[in-house]
């Protein structure tokens, strides 16, 4: 739900207290295993200006790099030359279509569709997030561009998704990013029972990412398993900066609430703080540890925000992790630990120390894995090129053979009398090929 400074703060629907009391832990619904679950629609500002905005039909790059003021107001310089050299502006196809091969759709959220693509420029795989809706106002466009600013700001940190470039064309925003293996949500559905050691490691990754945000006075506001991606190096990366906002701006009623399943209770009163991210992270850890189907509203929703976490949920996790999750999910924001306090937990300190000790070896393993992937990708490109080359030579050869065989025969059929020759279908000619035979002997 989006608000503006002049408006009273709209509220989320009050959770439905008539819903069934039965807890749904331990069994996630089977539909979770199906393709993308429908996500709750984001509530949008009712009286937003609808003055249309129209970006060029030619693609142009978007970048905030090098911009000094960090207040998110100014729009970036649009650098028309920052896009790939293979882009031909005179063609009808978009930059996306010209420069990438779309391989599959790998995700969808409320704002964007994400595709797995191969770049025609370097042959490497990427993820491209394309905004679902056309820009309907300059305000909407600026909201989308804000995500580019954040991706650029945090790209390069091991626990954020690597960002390459963004551009807009035909009133849509495109973002080219590192291709991650899968989201944590999908990982949970696939694995179900995640070892506690892995959960601590995931928590550490997300705390390191969150520390980066919170140290800059920014809040994410949409922390959930869907927005955590697993990279090639097995580390967890925080993604989706669509709602990231400065704490002060958030409390001037400009923030947008995230998914209600992970939302801290005080958000309903319009209180946005770093502690809201801690609450959402606590819920995500609870979901991971208990394979719990999180409610969008209802009695369980209320209970999870009242400080009473049913013991049933926690029976398979260690008291250490249970205590930490309870603290992170305290109803009062002031009672929740900060990122730094959680990072000083002895379990996390020892994990971090262990990581630092093994850093060199982990780096080497990553480099080997990356170069192996790059080599394989190059090999695939070569294989594809050789295959296309051989096929085209064979096709030309067989075509010429067929034509010269026909030439040698007497022209006796009525079609041949007219100079038209039919080449029979063969394994090499999947479609019937009819070619005009220019018979010099025949006028
Ligand atoms: N770089 C990536 N690599 C692999 N998958 C990705 C990548 N980026 C996004 N995805 C997939 O696409 C989904 C949607 O992406 P994202 O969360 O950025 O979109 P959104 O429209 O902003 O979502 P939301 O509804 O959370 O606001 C993610 O949950 C994830 O599964
Ligand atoms: Mg998302």
UniProtKB/TrEMBL annotation:
Annotated compartments: Golgi apparatus membrane
Main location as per UniProt: Golgi
Residues the record lists as binding ATP: 129
Enzyme Commission number: 2.7.11.1
Biased composition, class Low complexity, residue ranges: 49-61
Topological type in the membrane: Peripheral membrane protein
Ranges where the record places region Disordered: 46-77
One GO BP annotation of this record: negative regulation of G2/MI transition of meiotic cell cycle
Keyword set includes Cytoplasm: no
Keywords from the named record: ATP-binding, Cell cycle, Golgi apparatus, Kinase, Magnesium, Membrane, Metal-binding, Nucleotide-binding, Phosphoprotein, Serine/threonine-protein kinase, Transferase
Domain Protein kinase: 100-348
Gene Ontology, cellular component aspect: Golgi membrane; nucleus
Reaction equation(s) it catalyzes: L-threonyl-[protein] + ATP = O-phospho-L-threonyl-[protein] + ADP + H(+); L-seryl-[protein] + ATP = O-phospho-L-seryl-[protein] + ADP + H(+)
One function term, GO molecular function aspect: ATP binding
Family designation: Belongs to the protein kinase superfamily. Ser/Thr protein kinase family. GCN2 subfamily.
Name of the protein this chain belongs to: Membrane-associated tyrosine- and threonine-specific cdc2-inhibitory kinase
Classification lineage: Eukaryota, Metazoa, Ecdysozoa, Arthropoda, Hexapoda
């Amino acid at each position: 739900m989006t608000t503006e400074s002049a408006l009273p703060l709209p509220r989320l629907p009050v959770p439905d207290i008539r819903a069934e009391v039965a807890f749904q832990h331990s069994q996630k619904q089977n539909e979770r295993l199906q393709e993308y679950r429908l996500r709750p629609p984001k509530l949008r500002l009712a009286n937003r200006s609808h003055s249309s905005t129209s970006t060029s039909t030619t693609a142009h790059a978007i970048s905030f790099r090098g911009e000094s003021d960090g207040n998110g107001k100014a729009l970036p310089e649009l650098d028309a030359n920052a896009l790939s050299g293979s882009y031909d502006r005179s063609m009808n196809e978009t930059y996306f279509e010209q420069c990438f091969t779309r391989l599959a759709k790998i995700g969808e959220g409320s704002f964007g569709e994400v595709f797995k693509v191969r770049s025609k420029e370097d042959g490497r795989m990427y993820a491209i997030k394309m905004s679902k809706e056309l820009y309907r106002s300059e305000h909407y466009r600026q909201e989308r561009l804000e995500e580019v600013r954040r991706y650029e700001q945090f790209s390069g940190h091991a626990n954020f998704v690597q960002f390459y470039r963004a551009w807009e064309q035909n009133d849509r925003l495109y973002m080219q990013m590192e291709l991650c293996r899968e989201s944590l949500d999908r990982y949970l559905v696939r694995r179900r029972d995640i070892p506690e050691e892995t959960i601590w490691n995931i928590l550490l990754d997300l705390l390191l990412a969150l520390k980066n945000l919170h140290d800059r006075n920014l809040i994410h506001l949409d922390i959930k398993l869907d927005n955590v991606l697993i990279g090639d190096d097995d580390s967890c990366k925080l993604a989706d900066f669509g709602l990231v906002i400065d704490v002060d701006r958030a409390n001037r009623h400009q923030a947008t609430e995230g998914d209600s399943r992970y939302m801290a209770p005080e958000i309903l009163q319009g209180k946005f703080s770093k502690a809201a991210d801690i609450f959402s992270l606590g819920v995500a850890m609870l979901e991971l540890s208990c394979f719990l189907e999180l409610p969008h509203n209802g009695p369980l929703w209320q209970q999870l925000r009242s400080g009473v976490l049913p013991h049933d949920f926690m029976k398979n996790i260690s008291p250490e992790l249970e205590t930490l999750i309870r603290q992170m999910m305290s109803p009062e924001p002031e009672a929740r630990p900060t990122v730094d306090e959680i990072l000083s937990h002895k379990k996390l300190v020892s994990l971090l120390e262990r990581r630092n000790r093994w850093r060199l070896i982990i780096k080497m393993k990553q480099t080997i894995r990356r170069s192996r992937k790059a080599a394989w990708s190059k090999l695939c490109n070569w294989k594809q090129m050789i295959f296309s080359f051989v096929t085209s030579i064979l096709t030309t050869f067989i075509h010429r053979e067929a034509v010269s065989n026909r030439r040698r025969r007497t022209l006796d059929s009525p079609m041949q009398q007219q100079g038209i020759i039919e080449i029979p279908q063969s394994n090499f000619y999947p479609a019937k090929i009819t070619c005009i035979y220019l018979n010099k002997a025949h006028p």
